[in-house]
């Protein structure tokens, strides 16, 4: 989990490799069990554990879409196919409960981003800023992650006519809604 916490914030493969090496070194130094014992479910046939092995271990809130959001637990997700099915069910649930549907195709890279977003949003005071090129799916995945966590997504409308006072007004409404009216 520590590995995942750090790599969620990294961008280059070299940085990920550095964190992997630190984790492996720390396990060797401080744990009684060897790394292949700790990651026995994903270790290679020869017992070695690589970065790719660790990346196959998924944790998240992708319980069944029928499970109420307040009952969803952050847990290991050992079956990739079941993860995809649950994620597809969450997309369908979102589409059934919102006016504007999400047209998403579920695949590995997309599911990793949704897991990352739900992991961050599911924490107390969890927040994130997504940066990327337009049309890459940031908004859709954020909407889906908020839905999975049981949150109402608020997105201010931004255009060239907006100014600083408009931003303050939008933020004031949001704080009143969340803090005083206790709307999630």
Plain-language structure description:
With 184 residues, this protein is mostly helical. It folds into 3 domains: 2-55, no CATH class; 60-153, no CATH class; 154-184. 51% of the residues lie in helices and 2% in strands. The protein is built from 8 helices and 2 strands. Strands 1-2 form a two-stranded antiparallel ribbon. Helix 6 (108-121) crosses helix 7. It comes from Meganyctiphanes norvegica. Residues 102-183 form the Dynein heavy chain AAA module D4 domain. Pfam families: AAA_8 (PF12780). InterPro entries: DHC, Dynein_heavy_chain_D4_dom, P-loop_NTPase.
Core attributes:
184 residues; dynein intermediate chain binding; mainly alpha; globular; Dynein heavy chain AAA module D4 domain-containing protein; DHC; 3 domains; dynein light intermediate chain binding; Dynein_heavy_chain_D4_dom
Q: What's the helix count?
A: 8
Order of helices and strands: HHHHEEHHHH
Number of strands: 2
Return residue spans where pLDDT drops below 50 for at least 5 consecutive residues. none
The major pleated sheet works out as: 2 strands, antiparallel
Strand order of the largest sheet: 1-2
How far apart are the first and last residues' alpha carbons, in Å? 27 Å
Average of pLDDT: 82
Overall structural domain count: 3
| Helix share bin | 40-55%
GO molecular function: dynein intermediate chain binding; dynein light intermediate chain binding
Pfam family, one: AAA_8
Family: Belongs to the dynein heavy chain family.
Domain Dynein heavy chain AAA module D4: 102-183
């Amino acid at each position: 989990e520590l590995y995942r916490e750090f790599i969620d914030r990294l961008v280059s493969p070299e940085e990920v490799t550095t964190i992997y090496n630190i984790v492996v070194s720390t396990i060797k130094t401080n744990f009684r069990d060897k790394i292949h014992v700790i990651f026995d479910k994903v270790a290679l046939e020869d017992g070695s554990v690589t970065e790719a092995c660790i990346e196959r271990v998924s944790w998240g809130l992708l319980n069944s879409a029928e499970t109420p959001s307040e009952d969803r637990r952050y847990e290991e997700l050992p079956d990739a196919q079941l993860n995809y099915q649950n994620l597809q069910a969450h997309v369908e649930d979102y589409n059934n409960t919102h006016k504007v549907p999400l047209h998403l195709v579920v695949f590995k890279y997309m599911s990793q981003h949704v897991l990352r977003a739900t992991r961050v949003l599911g924490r107390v005071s969890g927040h994130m800023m997504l940066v990327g090129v337009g049309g890459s799916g940031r908004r859709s995945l954020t909407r889906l992650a908020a839905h999975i966590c049981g949150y109402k997504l608020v997105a201010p409308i931004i255009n060239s006519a907006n100014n600083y006072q408009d931003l303050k007004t939008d933020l004031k409404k949001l704080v009143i809604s969340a803090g005083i009216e206790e709307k999630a």
